[in-house]
Amino acid sequence: MAESSPQIPTGVPTAARVYDVMLGGKDNYEVDRAVAAGSLAIMPELRDIALHNRAILHRVVRHLAAEEGITQFLDLGSGLPTVRNTHEVAQEVNPAAHVVYVDIDPIVLAHGRAILADNANTTVVTADIRRPDDLLERPEVRALIDFDKPVCVMLVGILHHLADDEKPGQIVQVLRDAMPSGSFFFITNFTRLGDAPESVALERQLLEQLGSGRVRTPAELAAFFDGLEILPPGLVPLPLWRPDEPVLDASTIDVRFMTGGVGRKP
Ligand code: SAM
């Protein structure tokens, strides 16, 4: 179990730590495991879905670093360090790639600092994407991200933690306006499935027990990409985005519950 510290509230669950439970990590507490258990009772596929989310992250970062020449990654809602983080994938392709991790949860900074101590091209910042202007002005962000050069802005598994009245679309717009032409936006999100009532039940459970977890329709997700050129194969179930291995059965919940895609700012 994770050791507690005064900055880490252990009496209320957090999204970063519940996701850590799904990924089989050790940086979580009883309150987080209770939420994860409630979610898994509704949708047992969630552990596989979390792995699909990590796998598309690896494929997209590798693609953008290797094929599109992207050298800067702003990973928003990056979560706790896990197996193969963004900087490891990007810097495997280009050791000079810069990566800034941003998360609202102070546990991410606490654990990130330790693994990044000797990596001058990577940093972790505690900030709230609901205040995107503040985030973009942070000196730690500016030290590694040059906003005159194309950036990959990663919103992977984070926008579903914003309620509609927190205006995630407007947040994406502010970020998009700050990025130069040729920048990329990489988004994944829970998806409402018309034929799977558990996708609605999960939203209810997460809102009740965690306080966030908005399951959006494909049309709502597509709106995040307004004005961007979506890279093939489009906004698709995560395992179908340029898979390394063919996906034999794309009809299952674990394949379809999260949707993701990459858009390029023209
Ligand atoms: N991006 C990682 C991935 O997909 O593997 C982690 C995703 S995890 C499900 C969502 C993360 O978003 C959590 O670490 C949570 O703390 C963070 N988060 C939620 N709301 C946030 C906000 N308003 N600002 C910054 N981070 C936030």
TrEMBL record:
It comes from the Bacteria. InterPro entries: SAM-dependent_MTases_sf, SAM_dep_MeTrfase_SAV2177_type. GO terms for biological process: methylation. Coiled coil: none annotated. GO terms for molecular function: methyltransferase activity. This is SAM-dependent methyltransferase. Keywords: Methyltransferase, Transferase.
